[in-house]
Write a structure and sequence with these properties.
This protein has 160 residues and is an alpha+beta fold. It has one domain. The chain has four helices and ten strands. An eight-stranded antiparallel β-sheet has the order 5-6-4-7-8-9-1-10. A hairpin with a 5-residue loop joins strand 2 and strand 3. Helix 1 runs antiparallel to helix 3.
């Protein structure tokens, strides 16, 4: 039996560029720290029109991740190295106070374990043990909607 969690930030605002953002991203670094050390692969999705972020990603991680473009989405993917982990938790906001990446997907042994989407305002964690779930709940801001559900029959036993 494992636990899945979906949570969504309720304190949303629009920045000067009319982008939907969280009122406060102070949860980002501790939340990502929970998941980064428990996974081995990553995908970072950005809108292809977000040139400053794409340039930075390419500069910082081009030797770590590969880039492919699908429609209007640029996708960086590869192994979750120490350099990638450091990048994700050290400089994650744009000058307009928005999370730099539209979506971040983490996986372990090819199985999805964590999604951060819509500029870090909506999240899903899969196959969590109870101690990880409790750790996440301590990090989350109070103004958040949380839903959990239990998976009794897992195809593999990857618990975070």
């Amino acid at each position: 039996m494992s636990i899945n969690i979906h949570f969504e930030v309720n304190t949303i605002e629009f920045n000067v560029l009319d982008e939907r953002i969280s009122y406060d991203y102070s949860y980002w670094k501790p939340l990502m720290s929970v998941f980064l050390n428990k996974n081995d692969e990553i995908q970072i999705h950005c809108w292809s029109s977000d040139q400053d972020v794409l340039d930075e990603l390419y500069k910082e991680l081009s030797t770590e991740l590969t880039l492919k473009v699908e429609n209007s989405m640029s996708i960086f993917s590869g192994k979750l190295t120490e350099q990638v982990k450091k990048y994700l938790i050290s400089d994650y906001l744009t000058p307009s106070k928005r999370l730099k990446w539209f979506s971040v997907f983490l996986s372990k042994q090819g199985h999805s374990t964590f999604n951060a989407e819509h500029y870090g305002t909506e999240f899903i964690g899969y196959k969590l043990d109870t101690s990880t779930l409790e750790e996440i709940k301590k990090i989350l801001p109070k103004e958040i909607s949380v839903n959990t559900w239990v998976s009794e029959h897992d195809q593999n036993n990857l618990y975070l």
